[in-house]
Amino acid sequence: MDRESLIEFLETEFDGSRVRDLETVPGGARMGGTLVWDGFKDLDPIDRQHKLWSALRERFNREELRSISLLLAFTAAEVEAIMGD
Questions:
Q1: Among the listed residues 56, 58, 54, the one whose alpha carbon sits nearest the alpha carbon of residue 66
Q2: CA gap 4, 6 in Å, rounded
Q3: Which residues pair with 74 in a beta bridge?
Q4: pTM score, two decimals?
């Protein structure tokens, strides 16, 4: 899976979301980044990950999923509080 395919899928599947800082992890071919979506509001971190990975598993096969190392899930307000933007 390439970076652009993952971004397109996430931003389509999670309407109104934006993918931030999706980069290849140093020393490997795996990607990691952040999905910012206000639909995560009121969901616990584990429920956010379940929602995210459930959608990914419906779209991509096991081999493609191996190219993802980490996807953080935040709301826009949380990112603003953490990063100040």
A1: 56
A2: 5
A3: 36
A4: 0.90
